[in-house]
Write a structure and sequence with these properties.
The structure is a single chain. This protein has 9 helices and 4 strands. The chain has about 190 residues and is mostly helical. A hairpin with a 5-residue loop joins strand 2 and strand 3.
Length: about 190
């Protein structure tokens, strides 16, 4: 088992400057052991914001995983990130909410509104991933617009199709002609 944050150096040990943040054991997928995050959600929210403001990757990631580890106690902090001026911070908020498995309709509405005004493709794609992972049926109209629009970039359209597949429990992205299959489903379902 390696350590987090930092990169693995081949020996299972972390390398690189960690910017003074704690190191946590990681599993084979590179995910830290969430049981080792013992500080409050407020602490991790502040650490994340410092990381964003200081362009400090290690603080940002430590704060993000800490918020995920705090679970429901971190929901308000993650929702606040959806209103941050930095698109990467907004994407972090969406990803954290998806990791926690937040199902509150008000949170999902905030994610959908953030999707409608996403500033970057990366932010939009992260929001789509979160809404798909949450299986948010309320997101279907926004997702359908992205799939139907010829102006949507290919990666975002693929992410929208994948999100629709998770919500509808269909594997559109695994079929030949995934967009056509998604469009057919949308037409049949009235979404």
């Amino acid at each position: 088992m390696g350590r987090y944050p930092g990169t693995m150096d081949g020996s299972g040990r972390a390398s690189g400057d960690t910017g003074g943040v704690e190191q946590h054991p990681v599993d084979s997928r590179g995910r830290p052991d969430l049981r080792t995050f013992h500080r409050s959600a407020e602490f991790y929210a502040q650490l994340h914001l410092e990381g964003v403001e200081e362009f400090d990757f290690h603080k940002r990631v430590e704060g993000q995983w800490g918020l995920i580890a705090r679970g429901k106690d971190a929901v308000a902090h993650l929702v606040n990130l959806l209103h941050h001026p930095d698109p990467e911070a907004r994407a972090d908020g969406a990803a954290g909410l998806a990791q926690i498995g937040e199902t509150d309709p008000a949170v999902q509405s905030t994610l959908i509104a953030t999707l409608e005004h996403a500033a970057t493709h990366e932010e939009r794609d992260t929001l789509l991933q979160a809404l798909g992972q949450m299986r948010s049926r309320a997101a279907l109209p926004a997702i359908a617009r992205l799939i139907r629009s010829d102006a949507t970039d290919g990666d975002t359209q693929a992410m929208a199709i994948e999100a629709l597949g998770k919500i509808a429990r269909k594997g559109f992205d695994k079929r030949p002609g995934p967009r056509a299959a998604a469009l057919e489903y949308l037409a049949r379902s009235g979404a």
